[in-house]
Amino acid sequence: MEEKQVAIQQQFQASDNDQHKAYYYSKSPTNCAFKIQIACDFSHRILHVSEFYHGSVHDIKILRESGLLEHTEQTAQIIAGKGFVGEAYVTTPRKKPRRGELTDEDKNFNRDINSTRAAIENINQHLKIYANLGGVYRGAIDNFHKITKTGHVVSALCNLNLSKHPIRKYTT
Description:
Layout: E1 2-11, H1 18-24, E2 31-40, E3 46-49, E4 53-54, H2 59-66, E5 78-79, E6 90-91, H3 104-129, H4 131-134, H5 144-164
Parallel strand pairs: 5-6
Antiparallel strand pairs: 1-2, 2-3, 2-4
């Protein structure tokens, strides 16, 4: 099972104050972001969609509050980025040690993990095709229940689209 956050950009009006911008945090000075956690399997199906969070919330907090860890069995692993190091049931790429280099074994491990994580990047791209998640969100930014429902509907539509038109056709 793979896991990824998708940042959704929301454009600010010129009258918004700095406190409001910090609340929704984004790296872009003119936008704010919402975060949503998406988990998919190796068949490119979305299995889990979290609630939306403000852009300033750390990714590990979203994972812990989403309930995904409680539903993960010991036989299943979540493949995630380096921001999730140390979390149970989460496999992350290995970091380069300070003033050192990764061993060939670590580099091969990271290559395998990152090629596996490419599937979720494909899912993210399919989600961003929908204007609600890929562009400027025009709804009320304080109604997180409505934004979450929108994310669930878009994820269901994406699953339907991917079932009819798969990203990769595997031959076994």
